[in-house]
Amino acid sequence: MTARQPGWIDEALREHDEHHEHAAAIPDREQQVLDRIDRARRRRPKVREERITMSHGAGGKATHTLIEAIFLDAFRNPLLEPLEDAAALAVGGARVALTTDSYVVSPLFFPGGDIGELAINGTVNDLAVSGARPLYLSAGFILEEGFPVADLTRIAASMHDAAAAAGVQVVTGDTKVVQRGKADGCYINTAGVGVLDRDTDLGVARARPGDAIIVSGPIGDHGVTIMLARGELDIEADLQSDTAPLNGLVAGLLDSVPGVRAMRDATRGGVATILNEIARSAEAGVLVSEEDIPVRPEVRGAAELLGIDPMYVACEGRLVAVVPGDQAGRALAALHTHPLGVQASVIGHVTAEPPGIVQLKTAFGGTRIVDLLVGDPLPRIC
Amino acid sequence: MKFVDEFRDADKAHALAAKIAALCEPGRQYKLMEVCGGHTHTIYKHGLEDYLPESITLVHGPGCPVCVIPMGRVDDAMALAAEPGVIMTSFGDMMRVPGSKGSFFDAKAAGTDIRMVYSPLDSLKIARANPDKRVVFMAIGFETTAPSTAMTILRAAAENLPNFSVFCNHVTIIPAIKAILDSPDLRLDGFIGPGHVSTVIGCRPYEFIARDYGKPVVVAGFEPLDILQSIYMLMLQLSARRAEVENQYARVVPWAGNATALQVIGETMELRPYFEWRGLGFISHSALAVREKYARFDAELLFKVPGVRVADPKACQCGEVLKGVLKPWECKVFGTACTPETPIGTCMVSPEGACAAYYNYGRMNRHRVREAAEVGRS
Fold first, then answer.
1. Predicted complex ipTM exceeds 0.85
2. Which of A238, A217, A214 has the alpha carbon at shortest distance from A294?
3. Given strand A367-369, what is the order of strands in its sheet?
4. Which of B101, B105, B365 sits opposite A53 (nearest CB)?
5. Are strands A319-323 and A262-265 parallel, antiparallel or unpaired?
6. Chain A partners within 8 Å of B1 (Cβ)
7. Which residue among B47, B109, B332 places its CB closest to the CB of A51?
8. Which of A52-61, B154-163, B286-295 comes out lowest in average pLDDT?
9. Between the CA of residue A316 and those of A230, A268, A273, what are the distances in Å?
10. Nearest-CA residue of chain A relative to B228?
11. Torsion of CA A250, A256, A259, A260, to 10 degrees
């Protein structure tokens, strides 16, 4: 049952009427409505639902509201407040980054990887895009009674391989088993520590008008692969998850362009969500061009059939970087030398206007808004 | 992407846009209604309005299956879903539609067994796999989706499946168009006809619009160039003072429709004497019910359905939006109290709803976009 405070609707109506009175005199009434919506969007987030729904886990609007209204409210501190992928901490003179992530992907094994590989790479990537050199990980397992030991062995082996490939070690862990039916096979949580040994200051709030926005490769592979792997759709495509550790790619980029303003790995909510985070945090506009966004034909085709937008589909080995406009060429060149960045491209720019809004120049030649995702087209993607 | 990119070619769009602009008579305003929500979605998703001269206004019509479901029917469905032993199955679009006591999503979060399906046939799978449960499919949509519901009923009958039924909310498009034509609120110049519906019913049912109301109709496809070309075809008719039904989407839509699809609908469903549409009120012979012959698959007969009429929230102006009288942003609660995450009205829920399409994609000042483009060019 949704709780709709009458006051909340009344407020909107009152504001509408105030503007409506002057409407005849002012020609650009549509703009006024848009301004009013903008103000509504900036209001303090509030969870209106009485219970958690799948939308709260989708990485879109509801997730943002949940994090800001409940967790940020409860834990508020300057280290948490930037809401970056990892927190930057000073520990006894050293600067370290700390992050955590839980993995509930279904199915556990999919083309191109499995939950174990995902659990290592995801946490490594959260550290890497924060500018840290990932070092140590923890691993917590929640297992359902009856889960095959052979599957767990396979998952652990792939975690070992992924950790080795990323140059990190799993140094502590935890195991819990719950009754059959109380979990779905295997969930994994990993936390990671990395050292911030570069003199960089990264954060999406640092984006400035004129900055270039780069993605490191084709988007949406992971999400579409998982969706097809569930076999509910009777669509077949030659696709693999893009799960990969990004620390090597990031190191190459930062070596060559120390002035990088921000990086994010495009997981849940996809590239669109990151672009919105940039626009909101930097209080700037973002303008991207559909034609410049790399998407594999298989992903585009499947997404088109399913009515979903690849911009919102999760990747597990792609980063979005914001770099000063005049350093875009150098950044691209650096990314292109790494196997994971061969198809990196500049997809758009940060603009002064309109603040907080992401616009997409469509391949068709029109313009549209790219907002935060509402609802959840693909639950349990990672 | 083959067979898609060809219909999204910006150069061709510019050429068509120039031809459309050339047909506009100076000082005349044109109001064209795209009946189908799928068109509304395309128009906003691809930024098609950027191509149209300011004298052409696209008015968004009632052809969004989710948008026209009245609150009472949502409440009925929720009551059905709450019956012991019931698994309710529904298209994803329906999950967030608000009833007076919340949406399917809210009910699901509270423990009711509601499952999303991509096809009604998936509901049959669920019914076979859960013989101790009663599976109800929430059937919605125009003539586009009615055949798949009909086929599902026939399949269930062939299998003699004892635990499957349909809560039928299928509606028909022609009475809704007629209601709009008879509404004094709105003066339209022509119609972009619904493409998907027409694959089933064909183009003939629209002939009365041209003949009796003197308005041109062009049945259109769903790619942006399809719609631009249809607008061009409408403008050609208007400038020649013609009113005919034309078929832009001939690659998919046969003039006479799909006889097999119509036959299975006719076999399993019959017209209701009347049905309530959200915002449009009661329209006679505008919806389908399961035929008596298949009564054992009719959830309305198998379960106690409250059937109470529930008035829309006072603040909601979906009716005006569905009739095209209001632009989405002119609604009092648009974008402030009513957003895609907390929709008050149905138009804000479905990706085909005019409000959701405008909010998600089009919420920007077109004049400013144009000015910016011109500054960029000069």
1. no
2. A217
3. A262-265, A319-323, A212-215, A345-351, A285-289, A358-361, A367-369
4. B105
5. antiparallel
6. 297, 300-301, 304
7. B109
8. A52-61
9. 18, 9, 14
10. A364
11. -30
Across A56-60, A244-248, B243-247, least confident range = A56-60
Least confident of A9-18, A71-80, B149-158: A9-18
Between the alpha carbon of residue B38 and those of residues A256, B246, B252, the distances in Å are 47, 19, 15
| Closest chain B residue by Cα to residue A36 | B336
DSSP letter for B313, please: P
Q: What is the pLDDT of residues A326-369, one digit of tens each?
A: 999 999 999 999 999 999 999 999 999 888 899 999 888 888 88
Of residues B4, B46, B224, nearest to A304 (C-beta): B4
Supply the pLDDT for residue B140: 94
Q: What's the rounded mean pLDDT across residues B244-261?
A: 94
Backbone angles phi, psi at A50, to 5 degrees: -90, -20
Q: Do A33 and B101 lie within an 8 Å CB cutoff?
A: no
Taking the Cβ of residue A23 and every Cβ of chain B, the question of whether any pair is shorter than 8 Å is answered with no
- Residue B337 has its nearest CB partner, among A8, A30, A33, at A8
Average pLDDT rounded to a whole number, residues B341-351: 82
The Cα B95–Cα B51 span in angstroms is: 34
Q: Looking at the complex, report in whole angstroms how far the Cα of residue A163 sits from the nearest Cα belonging to chain B.
A: 37
The kind and range of the H/E element at A288 are: strand A285-289
Q: Which of residues 274 through 303 in chain A touch B, CB cutoff 8 A?
A: 297, 300-301
Question: Which of A8, A365, A369 faces B363 most closely, judged by CB atoms?
Answer: A369
Which residue does chain A place closest to B9, by CA atoms? A364
Is the distance from CB of A365 to CB of B13 less than 8 angstroms? yes
% residues pLDDT > 90 (chain A): 65
More confident residue, B375 or B202: B202
A-chain CB neighbours of B334 within 8 Å are 33, 37
CB contact under 8 A, A53 and B110: no
Report which residue type is found at B95: M
pLDDT band at B376 (very low <50, low <70, confident <90, very high): very low
pLDDT-based confidence at residue B370 (cuts at 50, 70, 90): low
> Does A27 contact chain B (CB < 8 Å)?
no
Sign of the dihedral defined by the CA atoms of residues A80, A102, A207, A367, in that order: negative
- Residue in chain B nearest A303 by alpha carbon: B1
- Report whether pLDDT(A1) > 50: no
Report yes or no: B221 and B251 within 8 Å, Cβ to Cβ: yes
Tell me the per-residue pLDDT of A301-327, one tens digit each, with 9 for 90 and over: 888 887 788 999 999 999 999 999 999
Put simply, the chain A residues between 200 and 259 with a CB less than 8 A from any chain B CB are 232-233
